[in-house]
Every structure is written in C-alpha cells, then in structure tokens.
Amino acid sequence: MLDAETNGNLAIHGWIAKMGEPLYLHQAPTGYPDTADSWVNTGALLERLNFALALAANQIKGTQVDLTRFAGASADLNGELDKSKLINAFISRILQGEASPQTRATLIKQLNIPLNVSHAPSSQHRGAGDEGRARRAQGKQEPAARNASSADSSEAAKIAGLVLGTPEFQRQ
User: Fold this and answer.
1) What is the pLDDT of residues 14-68, one digit of tens each?
2) pTM
3) Chain centroid to CA 33
4) Are 117 and 53 contacting, i.e. CB atoms less than 8 angstroms apart?
5) Which residues lie below 8 Å from residue 84, measured CB to CB, with a gap of 6+?
6) Are 168 and 98 in contact (CB under 8 A)?
7) Bridge partners of 5?
C-alpha cells in the first residue's frame, strides 16, 4: 500500500515471523489460513501495528518507504504539515477513502499523543532509522530528510502506521 522497496533480508523476515506467519514454515501446502480466527488476537494485532509503524518510519533494515507524496500534498501555504489533510491522504490511498467516523476521530485524537513504541528490540530488526539516531547522538548531520522536516517525516510515518493499523485495513 505504501510502495515500499525491500531487499528481502532477514529483518523483514523477522517481522513477518513476529506477526505469526514465518515464511515457508506452514506445514500444509496450501499456506497459512486466511480466516480471522486463525490470526486475529491481541498479540498478533499489536505486532501488525508495530510492523506498520516501523515500516512507515523506515526502521526496517533493507526496506524503505517514501512518504513524500503524502506529506507534500498535505502542506499548508506556510509549508507546515496539515495533519488533517495528511490523514485524509493516507485514508484515501490505503483505505480507498473508506474509514468510519469513529476511526477518523481516533486517528485525529492520536495525533496529539506521543508515540513511544519499541519497534525492534533485537538487532536483526534494526533499521535505517537506527543509524540516523546514532549519527545525531554523535553530533553528526544526517543526510537530507525525505520529507520537509524530520518532525513532518515522523508525523507522516506515525499517521501512515496508524492508518495501516485501523480495523478497516486489518479486515482487507
């Protein structure tokens, strides 16, 4: 949905395994069941949301998402990010505009809450964002951000991840 590019390395495989469907490990030749009762539970849904947030924030090594097409269309006249427009852009792209009023209200509410999710506790899940944090900690400049600012980028990633975690997307 986000046109991510991946090299298919162990980091992305690790995330798929954490979500409960490790590649090539289902015994039946027909693959994993596609009925909700097989994979919908609190732990699995939490892992799916964590994956969506890590993916959108480019924190999965070897996998990149470019959110500029969403953030660019969501800037106001002063170049500042219009979060409401950004939510609508992601809902349009990811959910084909089909989001309940309750989902929209929840997403807007979440914009004012800081997101402190540990996306990847193990080194195999460490992503591109980790190198940037290391450079900042050392006082070195990071390469130019993909979005207008790092704040806009993190807000766009947060919104994208949350839209991917909506019930409407999870039911697709």
Assistant:
1) 999 998 888 888 888 888 888 777 777 788 888 999 999 999 999 999 999 998 8
2) 0.71
3) 24
4) yes
5) 108
6) yes
7) 64
